[in-house]
Design a protein that fits this description.
Order of helices and strands of chain B: HHHHHHHHHHHHHH
Shape of chain B: globular
Number of strands of chain B: 0
Oligomer: heterodimer
Structural class of chain B: mainly alpha
Shape of chain A: globular
Helix content of chain A: over 70%
Structural class of chain A: mainly alpha
Strand content of chain A: under 5%
Largest sheet of chain A: none
Order of helices and strands of chain A: HHHHHHHHHH
Number of helices of chain A: 10
Number of strands of chain A: 0
Number of helices of chain B: 14
Distance between the termini of chain A: 25 Å
C-alpha cells in the first residue's frame, strides 16, 4: 500500500465508521478463534447433568444445554472451527477460480467455451442442494463440507476473474509483455492476475459470510460436524429440540454468533469495495 | 409490441438453449450415484445380510456390470420413463414419493415468494422515494441484518415468539393438525384444495400452519429484493420521463406506480428468479425446522439414512424446477420488456 492509498483508506474509514467497526469485529473473531480454547471459563464438552438447561446467569453467561455444558464456552471454542471451514473453503475457490477464470479470459476459444458450459451447468443447481449432494457423495466429514462449500463458490470466482481478465487482455502493458517474449502462462500469472486480485479480495470478503451460513446450514441438517464437537450450526440444531418449551438461549446465542460473524464480513467487504472503487458505493 | 407468435418462437428458442444445462444436470446426478460410497447394488439388495449371489444378480439387473457409458444411457432411459428407483426408507418408488410431497414444498415456496415480494417492493419504493430518510436507513439496516440471520435460526426464533411466548401459532410441526380431515385432493396445494371444497375452518388451519415457515423463508429473501427495488427505483425516478411526467402535473401515485415502478420492475424480476433458487435450497432448512412434509425433508431423511435413490431424484427434481423457473423468468422478462430479444 502506498501512502496515498493509506490516506484514502483512513479517509473512507472516518466517513464510514461501520467499516472500521466491522474490521475490528473481524480482528476480534480471529483473536477468539486463535486464543478461544485458552480463555473459556468451562470445558466445552464436559457435561454436568445437575446444571442442565439453566437459563443465562452470572455463572453461565449464555446458559447451559441439556447436558449441562456451558453454552458460552462452547460458542467461543466453536469460532475456530467455523472460521477455518469458511476461510479454507473460500480460499480454495478463490485460488482455483482466479487461475481457471484468468486463463479462460485470456485465451478465449475452446477452453473458455468448455469451462463456460461447465459453470452454466453448476449454476443450474440450487447451490445449497448441490453442496448437500456433494457431502452425501464424498462422505459425511468436515473436510467434505469444506470441499462442497469451495465447489459451490467456484463458479462465481471463475466468472469474476474471467470477466476482469477479458477486458484487460489487449491493453497496452499486456501487449508490451507479450512483445517482450513473455509466455502466455507468464502473462496471465505475473501481469494479469496481480491486477485482478484486489477486486477479487473484496468478492472474497463478501463471500465469507455466505460460506459461514452455508457451512452452518449443512451442519444444522446433520452433515459434516458431529456432536459433541462445538460448532454454531450444530449447537442450533441441538437447541432446536428445546425451543418449543421456551429454552431460547440454546438457539439465540449461537444464532447471534453466526449473525455477527456474517455481518462483520459483509460490512467489511462493502467497505473494502468502497475503498477500491468509490463509484460502486450504494 | 411483439406479436404472440414471435414471443412463442422466442420462448421456444430460449427453451432449446436451456437443454444443455438440463442434460448436464442429468449427467451430474448420474455421476453422483456412481461416486456415492459403497456399491448401489448392496443398498438395493434385500438387507445387510444379502448373499454374494443375490448382489451379483442385482448388479446385473441394474446394469452395473456394463461399461459406464452404457450405464449412463440406461440411466437416461430410466429417467425418460419416469423411473427414479425405489426408496428403501418408504418402500415406494421415488417418483411416487416425490409427486406426493412436491405440492407441500411448492406451496411453501410460492407463499414465501409472495410474502417477500409484497413486502419488499413497497419497502424498496418507499426507501427510494426519500433517499437518506429514516425509512431509507431503516430499510437498509433491515436488509443488512436480514441476509445475516440464518433461516434455521430465524425460524426457531419465530416459533419461540409466536408459539411459546404469544401462543398464537399452532404446534410447529407439519402442514395440518392431525385431527383435521384432509380435503379431497385435487391439486395437493392445501390452501387451494380447502378453498375449492369451501371448507373455511380447514383453510384457516392450513393457513395458520403455513404462515410461520413461509415468513421464515421470506425474511431471508426480502433483503435482496428490497435492495434491488430501491436501486432500480432510484434510477427510474431520476430519469427524463419521470421529470416530464412531473412537469405536466400528473398525480404522484400515477408517476410513482405507473411510470417509475413499471420501468423499475425488470431487474426485480431477474433477482426474483435468483431468489427462487435460493429458496429451493433454503427449503431444506425450513422444512427441517417445521417438520414440513415436503420433498426437501424427504431427501434429507433419506440422505441421513444412506438411502440414495431419493437424494438423486430430489437433486434432479430441484435442478429441473430451477431450469424451468429460469426459463419462465426469461419469458416473463421478454413479455414485460419488448426490447429484450434472445441472442
Amino acid at each position: 500500500m502506498t501512502g496515498a492509498t493509506l490516506r484514502h483508506t483512513a479517509w473512507i474509514l472516518r466517513g464510514n465508521p461501520l467499516t472500521a467497526i466491522a474490521a475490528a469485529g473481524v480482528v476480534l473473531l480471529i483473536l477468539i478463534a486463535v486464543f478461544g480454547p485458552q480463555i473459556v471459563p468451562y470445558d466445552p464438552i464436559a457435561s454436568n447433568v445437575s446444571q442442565a438447561l439453566m437459563p443465562p446467569s452470572a455463572a453461565h453467561l449464555a446458559g447451559t444445554d441439556q447436558l449441562g455444558r456451558d453454552t458460552f464456552s462452547r460458542l467461543i471454542v466453536a469460532t475456530r472451527l467455523d472460521l477455518v471451514i469458511a476461510v479454507s473453503a473460500v480460499g480454495i475457490s478463490f485460488v482455483l477460480g482466479a487461475v481457471i477464470g484468468a486463463f479462460c479470459g485470456y485465451s478465449g476459444g475452446r477452453l473458455d467455451r468448455t469451462v463456460g458450459r461447465f459453470v452454466d451447468v453448476m449454476m443450474a443447481f440450487p447451490l445449497f442442494v448441490l453442496a448437500m449432494a456433494m457431502v452425501a457423495a464424498l462422505g459425511n466429514r468436515v473436510e467434505n463440507i469444506v470441499i462442497a462449500t469451495a465447489v459451490i463458490n467456484l463458479p462465481f470466482y471463475i466468472r469474476f476473474a474471467r470477466a476482469e481478465v477479458n477486458v484487460r487482455r489487449n491493453v497496452g502493458w499486456v501487449e508490451a509483455a507479450r512483445a517482450s517474449g513473455e509466455s502466455p502462462i507468464s502473462v496471465v500469472l505475473r501481469f494479469l492476475l496481480p491486477n485482478v486480485l484486489p477486486a477479487m479480495a473484496v468478492q472474497m470478503s463478501l463471500n465469507l459470510g455466505w460460506a459461514i451460513l452455508n457451512a452452518a446450514g449443512l451442519s444444522f441438517i446433520g452433515l459434516g460436524v458431529k456432536p459433541p464437537t462445538p460448532e454454531w450450526g450444530i449447537m442450533v440444531a441441538e437447541g432446536a429440540r428445546f425451543i418449543s418449551t421456551g429454552r431460547w438461549w440454546l438457539v439465540a446465542f449461537p444464532g447471534l454468533a453466526l449473525m455477527l460473524a456474517v455481518l462483520c464480513f459483509n460490512l467489511l467487504g462493502d467497505g473494502m469495495r468502497d475503498i477500491l472503487d468509490p463509484r460502486m458505493r450504494t | 409490441m411483439k406479436s404472440f407468435g414471435a414471443t412463442m418462437i422466442w420462448a421456444g428458442r430460449r427453451f432449446l438453449s436451456s437443454l444443455p444445462a438440463l442434460f448436464g444436470v442429468l449427467v451430474f446426478t448420474f455421476l453422483l450415484m456412481r461416486v456415492l460410497p459403497g456399491d448401489p447394488a448392496v443398498f438395493f439388495a434385500s438387507g445387510p445380510n444379502a448373499g454374494k449371489e443375490e448382489i451379483a444378480v442385482i448388479r446385473k439387473q441394474m446394469g452395473l456390470d456394463k461399461p459406464v457409458p452404457n450405464q449412463l444411457l440406461l440411466y437416461l432411459y430410466d429417467v425418460g420413463r419416469g423411473n427414479l428407483g425405489r426408496s428403501i426408507m418408504t418402500g415406494q418408488p421415488v417418483t411416487t414419493d416425490l409427486r406426493n410431497r412436491l405440492p407441500a414444498s411448492l406451496e411453501l415456496t410460492f407463499a414465501a415468494l409472495l410474502i417477500a415480494l409484497v413486502s419488499a417492493i413497497p419497502l424498496g419504493v418507499l426507501a427510494a422515494l426519500k433517499p437518506g430518510s429514516v425509512i431509507d436507513h431503516g430499510v437498509r439496516l433491515f436488509c443488512a441484518l436480514g441476509v445475516c440471520v440464518p433461516t434455521f435460526v430465524s425460524g426457531l426464533l419465530l416459533i419461540y415468539v409466536f408459539y411459546y411466548l404469544l401462543g398464537v401459532a399452532p404446534d410447529p410441526t407439519g402442514r395440518l393438525d392431525v385431527f383435521i380431515s384432509l380435503p379431497s385432493s385435487r391439486t395437493g396445494f392445501l390452501m387451494i384444495d380447502f378453498a375449492l371444497a369451501g371448507d373455511i375452518d380447514g383453510w384457516w388451519a392450513a393457513f395458520r400452519q403455513l404462515i410461520l415457515p413461509a415468513m421464515t423463508m421470506a425474511l431471508f429473501v426480502i433483503a435482496p429484493l428490497a435492495r434491488i427495488t430501491r436501486a432500480s427505483m432510484l434510477v427510474s425516478l431520476g430519469s427524463d420521463f419521470v421529470r416530464t411526467a412531473r412537469s405536466v402535473g400528473l398525480s404522484r401515485w400515477r408517476i410513482v406506480v405507473t411510470y417509475a415502478l413499471r420501468n423499475a420492475i425488470l431487474p426485480v424480476i431477474t433477482i426474483a428468479g435468483i431468489v427462487f433458487s435460493t429458496m429451493l435450497g433454503a427449503n431444506v432448512l425450513v422444512e427441517k425446522v417445521y417438520s414440513w412434509p415436503g420433498v426437501a425433508s424427504y431427501a434429507l431423511d433419506a440422505l441421513l439414512s444412506s438411502d440414495y435413490a431419493p437424494v438423486q431424484g430430489f437433486v434432479l427434481l430441484m435442478a429441473s424446477v430451477f431450469v424451468v423457473v429460469n426459463l419462465l423468468v426469461d419469458i416473463l422478462y421478454g413479455i414485460a420488456d419488448p426490447r429484450v430479444s434472445i441472442g
